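Question: I have long wanted to understand how a fold can be written as tokens. Here is the record:
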Amino acid sequence: MTPNFLSWSGFILALGAAALIVTGYPLAAGIVVLVAGFFDILDGALARLIKRVTPFGAVLDATLDRLSEGAILLAILAVYAIQQSLPGVLLVGAALITSQLVSYIRARAEAQGLECKAGIFTRAERVVILALGLLLSYFTPALLIALAIIVVFSLVTIIQRVVDVWRQKPPA
């Protein structure tokens, strides 16, 4: 078992969760989202434990994380589009944009040689909130509430990260 295998496994599980969402099984999808999130935690931990941290592994992990989150949100978007729920469509769109920005700001700052770990709402928190919304079913307001929480706290994290980067001096 390698860290990259765990990254790919988490991604495949996320695709499975997306399929469950589209086919009307939000409870099962919520469980699979949590399992996929657990794989996401394990891949980096395993890489550090067996001393196989590589730049490629980090890029692969980050890429698959973004694709996983995007696939799940796209599946929810499809459901809300079919239901003709404008609030649902807008919230999913906003969650997709803001959650991706949280990760992008960190990556962009680090590419500039700056540290960017500020922020109260990272991928782990988004996964848990999204899974809870799915577990409580998207046929009730629970998923809309979860999406709204993701949007609001992702916006807070975006602001925190931009301010954090702004306060840093560029490396010499």
